[in-house]
Specification:
The protein has about 400 residues and is of the alpha/beta class. It has two domains: about 170 residues, Rossmann fold, CATH 3.40.50; about 200 residues, Rossmann fold. About 35% of the residues lie in helices and about 15% in strands. The chain is elongated, with a radius of gyration of 23 Å. It starts with 16 loop residues before the first strand and ends in a 5-residue tail after the last helix. Bound molecules: adenosine monophosphate.
């Protein structure tokens, strides 16, 4: 994929109506309906401010939650309009629909420097189907399209890809940052390039492992997925997470790594428990795990092995926790790795989702070069496949 895309710095926004796809998929407290974090709205401000200051009329749009094509009051973007207005310090006009009468008339009358937010795109089933007539109507509101929703660039939806058929398409500052940092890590990393992979399942990371085996110098595998690799090496794993149908794949990867001279590291000791519970007492096991126990976190020797492998790295890409970090007793491996990554001196990139929240929890987030704003998107990016929401943007 070409990672060099035209951005909002490559056109003059003056007098233009800009359709801006944002990621306002904010977390909402199910009981109170309150927005619990303004991080995603804050992240969109640089692009919005650039466009408004330079004389554009901005028509922002986003999805929120999973309304599955139905109008659901609790998933309205109206509270986001209010939050955006407070953060921006200017009025945000809100449309009660997406491409209906209200949106059309408000978009038509929008003046340079003004901001309009459309209602939740996914209230219309045609959004996720990438329906061409829906994309065309959405595009008809504006002169230019800007994508700043990195979290959804792996989806081919009307607002993330379809609209680019009808409007010149540019990257916003957030998307530009993600694409350039992740793209450089894959295309031209400062070596040694070390990749740290964790999380629950091998099956979720197959594409990433395949791609990184071609690129990385060292691959570290921890978390639940490591146990399928240990099983493939003939080690007993007790009741640990196992994907039986991925054992052969793991064997193949171990062989491939050897052939390619890629160092592949797996845990050599584990903190185990008899029950999957926050209250379980951690039991340190080296080698075979007894049949009544499961691996919940990496042990101290593994922490040392993995941390040492990060020393001197030029680039580190980390996706997925090293253990069940949600349970304090089994968070140590992930937190220690966060520290080792942060102190490595390398260019460090942390994939979104669980790895991002683990790094935030560790207190080392500000020492990481880049924490991706997209969980699924950053994972698919690391697979090296074309992402529709990036491929559709104009090449430089
Ligand atoms: P993922 O979404 O694939 O990155 O997986 C993250 C989840 O993997 C987290 O909720 C962790 O609790 C879980 N996880 C990590 N290590 C283990 C393990 N050893 N056993 C079970 N679950 C794990």
């Amino acid at each position: 994929m070409n990672y060099s895309k035209k951005t909002i710095n490559d056109f003059d926004p003056k007098g233009k109506k800009v359709l801006l796809r944002c990621d306002f998929n904010v977390p909402i407290d199910k009981k109170t309906g309150e927005i619990t974090s303004n991080a995603r709205v804050t992240a969109a401000l640089p692009t919005i401010t650039h466009l408004l200051k330079n004389g554009a009329a901005v028509i922002a749009c986003s999805h929120l939650g999973k309304p599955k094509g139905e109008w659901k009051k609790e998933l309205s973007l109206a509270p986001v309009a209010k939050m955006l207005s407070e953060l921006l310090g200017q009025n945000v006009i809100f449309a009660e629909d997406i491409i209906g009468e209200d949106a059309k008339s408000k978009a038509k009358n929008l003046l340079p420097g003004e901001l309009l937010l459309l209602e939740n795109l996914r209230f219309d089933p045609r959004e996720e189907k990438n329906d061409s007539s829906f994309a065309k109507e959405l595009a008809s509101l504006a002169d230019v399209y800007v994508s700043d929703a990195f979290g959804t660039v792996h989806r081919a939806h009307a607002s993330t890809a379809g609209v680019s058929e009808f409007l010149p398409a540019y990257a916003g500052l957030l998307v530009e940052k993600e694409v350039s940092i992740l793209g450089r890590a894959l295309d031209n990393p400062v070596r040694p390039f070390v990749s740290v992979l964790g999380g629950a399942k091998v099956s979720d990371k197959i594409g990433v492992i395949n791609n990184l085996l071609q690129k990385a110098d060292t691959i570290i595998i921890g978390g639940g997925m490591a146990y399928t690799f240990l099983k493939a090496e003939g080690i007993e794993i007790g009741k640990s997470l196992l994907e039986e149908d991925k054992i052969d794949y793991a064997k193949e990867m171990i062989n491939k790594a050897q052939e390619k001279g890629v160092r592949l590291l797996v845990p050599i000791d584990n903190l185990c428990a008899t029950e999957f519970s926050a209250d379980s007492t951690p039991i340190l096991i080296e080698g075979d795990i007894p049949s009544d126990m499961m691996g919940m976190d990496i042990g101290p020797k593994t922490i040392k092995l993995f941390s040492d492998a990060l020393i001197g790295a030029g680039t580190i890409v980390w996706n997925g926790p090293m253990g069940v970090f949600e349970f304090a007793n089994f968070a140590g491996g992930t937190m220690s790795l966060a520290k080792a990554v942060a102190e490595s001196g390398a260019t460090t990139i942390v994939g979104g989702g669980d790895s991002a929240s683990a790094v935030e929890k560790s207190g080392f987030a500000d020492k990481i070069t880049h924490i991706s704003t997209g969980g699924g998107a950053s994972l698919e990016f690391l697979e090296g496949i074309d992402l529709p929401g990036i491929a559709c943007l104009l090449d430089k």
